[in-house]
Specification:
With 430 residues, this protein is mostly helical. Helix content is 76%, strand content 0%.
Length: 430
Amino acid sequence: MDTTGSDDSGSGQPGPPSGAQDFGSALALSPEPGAESGRSGEAPWRRFWLLTSAASISELGNTFLRLAMPWTILGSTGSPLLASLSLGVQYLPFVASPLVGTLIDRYERRRVFMVAELMQGCLVALTPLLLMVDQIGLVLLVLLVAGFGTVASNLTSDFSLLPKLAPGDRVAEAYSRYSACTQLALTAGPAVAGVVLAAVGDYWALWMDAATFLLTALVAIALPQGEKPAVERGFLRMQIEGFRIFRTIRGIPRLTAVLALYNLGAGAVPTVLLVLVGTTWHWSVSLGGLVLASGSAATALGAWLGSRVWTKARAERRIGLWLTLSAVSCAGLLTPWYALVILGFCGLMAGEGALNVTTNEYRFRAIPEAMTGRVNAVMRGTILSSAGLSALLLGWSVALPQQVLRFTPAALTSALAVLVWLGARRVRTS
């Protein structure tokens, strides 16, 4: 998650709100979107739905990649670790997010988004050709490079393009709608992917995914064009400034550390669960797709709840609530019963969906547009790079003979994340 299972969502500012004590006060003190130059509070919903529809179709296509790639690599090599790495290598470029974010802040955001989408489409289209000749190492390398396009695309769409397309006082609602729609596409995706994989095979499914990136790039043409940022400082100075401002926003470094800890164990749960379904449970790819679909539906539900439950509470309390839900749900993953494992997986994904909405809303309100690329990149780089390590950790543990051990890393790190978050909050208020 960025938190991904997104997300990010988990899943990250010239300066943040002065004297902000926590997320709740930052939200209260920050000007509403639209109060600053370039953040139009009257942006029409029509363009928002255009971007959301294209992104949902793209997510539907990405399901083909998430199903076909690990399944094909698993069948070719018999290695759960290599199958899990097909996800892990896509997260590794987020380590370089601060560098990418600084570059983004030097260019017009819509153009960056278009180039990043086209780059991903071309690289995904190349993977079937490499799979045909059993070049698994090159496939992982191509996915690694495509991950840099994902970084640029996510940073521009999530924190620059998307918030501008909704009225200024309804940004949380926009994030909730966007997340719910894309997750509903992911819900239908595995079922559609199962039919497509059976009908046309792995390679054509991947080429269809590549085509969806072209669609989102074309849709970007209809989005409002922003101004090219004035670049008055050197690249290195912009990097240093991004890290400095990241550190000055009270609560943001702590949130970043907590979500990185959480993702270290839970970040790769969906992909590793798919590997478990195929190697240990001996279920078909269609049933595996249904398991992932249930998790996507839970994420969509969580995103919907995230903007509606306990909304009068301070953001710190809401973040603690959704972290706790995810951590408690991890207990189901440790049981030997299929139904409880899937139920625990759904609870985990619901918590992540709500957590993404809550943290994304805060980040948009707290970070001025001129610094969104750099500071959000620092956050996202830390959070999602730990998800790449999660693919290694869970890729190893999923092969252990006892079910209670297979997802122990996810249960441990999610519980520690809750303890760190709540414990640090008590220290501050004491």
